[in-house]
Design goal:
Helix content is 45%, strand content 15%. By secondary structure, it is an alpha/beta fold. β15 and β16 (464-469) form a beta hairpin. The chain starts with a strand and ends with a strand. Bound molecules: adenosine monophosphate and zinc ion. Residues 30, 214, 239 line the site of zinc ion.
Length: 470
Amino acid sequence: MKEIKFFNTLGRIQEEFKPVSEGEARMYTCGPTVYNYAHIGNFRAYVFEDLLRRTLKFFGYKVTQVMNLTDVDDKTIRDSRKNSMSLNDFTAIYKKAFFEDLKTLHIDPAEYYPAATDHIPEMIELVQTLIDKGYAYQAEDKSIYFSITKFPEYGKLARIDMENQRAGVRIKTDEYAKDSVADFALWKAWDENDGDVWWDSPWGNGRPGWHIECSAMSMKYLGKTFDIHTGGIDNMFPHHEDEIAQSESANGCRYVNYWLHCDHLVVNGEKMSKSAGNFFTLRQLLEKGFTGNEMRWVLLSAHYRKKLNFTFDACEQAKMQLKRFADFFLRLKQVDGEGGVCTCTLDMLAKTEDDFAAALAEDLNVSEAFAVVFALQRDVNRLLDQGELTKAAAVAVLDVYRKFDTVLALFNIDAVKEETVPPEVLELAEKRREARKNKDFATADAIRDRLKELGWVVEDSPDGFRCKQL
Ligand code: AMP
Ligand code: ZN
């Protein structure tokens, strides 16, 4: 199996990937909090995780991926109440929307999508274990807290200096910043803000904290120690730090071997987020006329550990590039030259495949992988221009792109077909050719402008013309 290297946030170094079980990769990805439509910042994280999953499969790993659905937390309760809906009815809307969006972006489904509300008994059991082992306690407010001083390694992921922290301070909210490091809530006793959302527990009515959800569900589906845990960089603290503390204290063994975090999608340098109001949902972008493929291109286009700036210019670029590739694949499909595949073409394709694999194996270097994909397109276009490609060679090139597309999921090569040209457009194109033959360039140009208005362009060639949609 090819060696793959990942940058492990735990330790901040690039390491060779060695799974717990040979040939298998077990990964957990923090999923959406289903209180609104996910924005494309969130989808940057999911597209990165999809790239990771597809890359592991490309290298022959059997992948078991778990993505949780956070359908109970501070935000889902707050907004379901605001909308006077039951928590279940409210979150069902956004769960459904989320799965539709995943499809639009060609994100391969995970093996498991456990919802937090379906795993309350597992969470209660885990909290009980933490109490029994002396890591957790019930406070005056009846909630159960994790005592971070009991876990000496607390802070190892986010690199928090525990020396100067105040002991015994507690925090009940799910999200908090590094400067409010504190004992965090595992189980939150019911209060009036929770309305009718509560479960019975040994400590009275209440609900789980956000962090315990992921510890309990990952353990259930992946075991006490598994290979990869991912999320956006903002999840590192407190969420992932708290997951480590809970899981390693309860189980007495390492929780996760490789932590991979993607950097943010930003707008003018600021993280795209619901609270900043600088976000676009996927749906809003589809309404503006972009496709899921184009958005996937945009979200894939930078290395996952680099910030990615969202601009409409980048969306237009993606549209143009995908169109160029569609034209390229069509051209290849139309090649009908006889003969086999020469050794130089075979060598070129083999080298391209190797380079593509090497780029991905180097901590998912997608920019380098794209460079390989572009270089092959350029070289093959040259051969096409020279009429030097046989049908067999064109088929071999298309097969290489099909392989690339198992990872990139952008090209959908088999769906690329000649556009059906409306009769009106064909008629105009014929008239234009006539005008050009008669050297009536004014009429030919006027027809070209009319075609443009209709969204078509005519490309002239020695043996005729070809109509292409703009
Ligand atoms: P949430 O629904 O807020 O829990 O976020 C779901 C996922 O999206 C998490 O992995 C976050 O880290 C990630 N995320 C949120 N905002 C962004 C952003 N602007 N860029 C990249 N990832 C993000
Ligand atoms: Zn999580």
